[in-house]
Structure formats: C-alpha cells, structure tokens
Amino acid sequence: MTINLAHDWLNEHGDYLYRFALARLRDPHQAEDAVQDTMLAAIKSSSFEDKSSARTWLTGILKHKIIDLQRKHIREQAVSDIIDLDASDTSMDDFFDKNGHWLDKPQTLEMPENALEQKQFLSILSDCMDKLPAKLAAIFTMRDLHETENEAICKELNITATNAWVMLYRARMGLRKCLEMHWLTG
After folding, report:
1. Strand partners, 96
2. Of residues 146, 51, 80, the one with CA closest to residue 138
3. Which of 1, 49, 56, 178 allows an S-S link to 128, with CB 3.0 to 4.6 Å?
4. Does pTM top 0.70 for this prediction?
C-alpha cells in the first residue's frame, strides 16, 4: 500500500476512527494513539483486497488496537486499585437476569425536550465510569455497553468466569452508588 493511499484514508476516515476510539477508550490521547497505530498497521499490511470498504477494514484493525490498549492498561493496574463496594442492601436479581442481561434495559430519551437531560446524564455516567478502577470500567463497558458474552470477556481479560461476575457486580454497584449520589439526588 502506498503512503498516499494511507493519507487519503486518514483524511476520509480519520474523524470517524477517532470518534470510534474515543467512545470506547474515553481518553483523547489514547484514542489518537489507537488511530495512529491503526494507520501504521494498515500501511504495513497488504491484506486489504476491496472485499469490504476501507472504513470497515480500518475499523476492524482499530477494534484490535483498542482491545490491545485495554488489555495493557488492565495488566498494568495495581491490585490495590480494585475496590470493595458494600452492596449488602441490594440484590443483583433486582436488576439482571440469570445471564447477566438487564431485566429492564435503560431507555434512551427520545423526546427533543429531554435531549439536555440525556446529555447531562451521559456526562455524569462518564464521570462515574472514570471513578471506577480501569479494570471494572472495562468489564462493565464490554458486558453492558458492547454486550460482549461472558466467555469472550474472560478470554480477552484472561480471568475466570467467577472473577468476571464479581468484577461486573462491583462495577454495577459502584456506578449505581455514584449515579444515586450525582444524578438521582440532583
């Protein structure tokens, strides 16, 4: 692949790739790095054969770069960063089915007059996610936002199913407490 083609792809798809990475990594610098790594991998690779669009191919590369960054970040996280949340007053059965899916999935606000409220909520949710240890935020994102199956999460993070469920419980309870303090009580 020529450098000119990579330059064209960056001009055409760079903004999309950056937004895709930023939505998953929630860190502008990491998102930029992931896009740069994607473009470098695309330049070095000769596997693009026009069987899919360039955007689809680049997004596939970017997904792998994001997973690599998340794995690296999780491996580098200190064990002391894992928090123990006291949630003895609430049962997870109240919110999730036996497979870990929401019983009553959170609904998007579709009314235009509620757009500001939705934006404020998403901002507070993002702040609450940032307060979680990285490993808990990653597993919550993978399971509840990207709806990744537990088996795939365990394989990606190199953890046991029991550990995954405990971490997911802690992440959910941490977010619940944070949202109760910062959103539900105004």
Report:
1. 102
2. 146
3. 178
4. no
